[in-house]
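If you are new to this repository, start here. Below is one unmodified record pulled from the training split, so you can see the exact layout before writing a loader.
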Amino acid sequence: IYFNSRDTPRRTNQHSRITNNANYFLKMFKFVTILASIAAVCGFRSVPRAMRSSSLKMGFENEVGTLPPVGYWDPLGLSANIDEATFTKYRTAELKHGRVAMLAVTGYLVAEIARFPGAIDLDGTTFQSIPNGVEALKVVPAFGWFQIAASIGWWEIFGWKQVEGAQPGDFGFEFNRKLEGAEKIEKQTKELQNGRIAMLGIAELLTHDFAKPAGESLFTIHHF
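And here is the target side for that same chain:
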């Protein structure tokens, strides 16, 4: 049996790199799991208000979505010295992005196992022939991109339009108007928290999709 002693250090270094990378990703996975668990617990708490903080000037520490253990979390100081109208603008944007992220996560997962029937354009490009995730960016035809842009524009201009004088995120849906008191605050808190988790979730899905080998299923589990 031929044995090349020069291969030993190289194999040892390669094995060490693989081990170090595996340990790193395992630690990151544990950290993200713990963070998501804490956020999920906060999202389903029935108490929507946090304790007051003397360091906040505008009193936003009592707004919906302020929950323990982090309380009013604004590490970049975006709410420092802003008025109520600016806060409403920020909260409306947060709600809208959270709702879009929840739809994105749902669509990302559903499209991995099911597709619309028929074609996306007049040339006969079927939905089934388009891969899920970032790989679709290379395949979606021009008419498909036109439909996506037109849909986004319609929802942005007409569909999701903030009702003047209403609470942030009130786009005129009848469901919101039927809720009152503590029940309404609880639902708003859960929506905010689920939207925040979904924004983290879609970011993780995109990162995973970029990193995984081409053609591999999104649900493939790797063991380190």
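Two things worth knowing about this chain: Residues 109 and 184 are 29 Å apart (CA to CA). The radius of gyration is 23 Å.
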